[in-house]
Amino acid sequence: MFKMICGVILSGGLSRRFQVPGEPWVDKALYRVSNEPMIRLVYNALSQVVDEVVISVNVPERIKNYRSLIPSANYVIDDSRLSGPLAGIYSALSKCRGDYVIVVPNDMPYITPKALEPLINEVRNFDAVTYIYPNGHLENALMALRRDVTLQYMNLLIDYGRSKLFDLVRGLPRVLFLNPLIHGIELRSLVNVNRREDLM
């Protein structure tokens, strides 16, 4: 039986490392790469492989800014009981209708449907699937999740005051780590843009 897939874009960060001293604050999600805002590039890739898209933000003003670019997405505010990416993931999971969820940060402008498909394909047999590089480095917030199990576990994280993203991967019962190179994924497609020089 077909199960719905919900795509989640995390867009609640403060982008501190992206800022230039002495210049006005820039919303990284709206920074243009190849003449498109980063968040739009992420949405374009994600919307090709999911049934719905939810964008999680930290303040209501961002919803207004993003909705003019992406009117068809659903929007949620980060849950205040958690912090960082977990706050956005929890709020989005509560809004998603899909049985499975794929989470992508707004600062992965080179992400492709091809890079997302192995995560989606494998999560049907696991609670979480993410990429691990040959050097052992885990990909930050790019992951596919089984929605019901993840929500139950995140309620425990709230009870215990845990807000590290790694707590999610470390605590879910069945987690699969994929080597992107084995799946033919170009590492460039998994680049997280933290600083402007990352785009060079």
List the helices and strands and how they pair.
Blueprint: E1 5-11, E2 32-33, E3 36-37, H1 38-46, E4 52-57, H2 60-67, E5 74-77, H3 85-95, E6 100-105, H4 113-123, E7 128-132, E8 138-146, H5 147-159, H6 165-171, E9 175-178
Parallel strand pairs: 1-4, 1-6, 4-5, 7-9
Antiparallel strand pairs: 2-3, 6-8, 7-8
Helix pairs in contact: 3-5
Q: Can you give a write-up of this model?
A:
The protein contains 6 helices and 9 strands, in the order βββαβαβαβαββααβ. It is α/β, with parallel strands linked by helices and 200 residues long. It has a 7-stranded mixed β-sheet with strand order 5-4-1-6-8-7-9, sandwiched between helices. A two-stranded antiparallel sheet has the order 2-3. Strand 7 and strand 8 form a beta hairpin. Helix 3 (85-95) packs across helix 5 (147-159). The protein is globular and about 45 Å long. The model has no long low-confidence stretch (mean pLDDT 91).
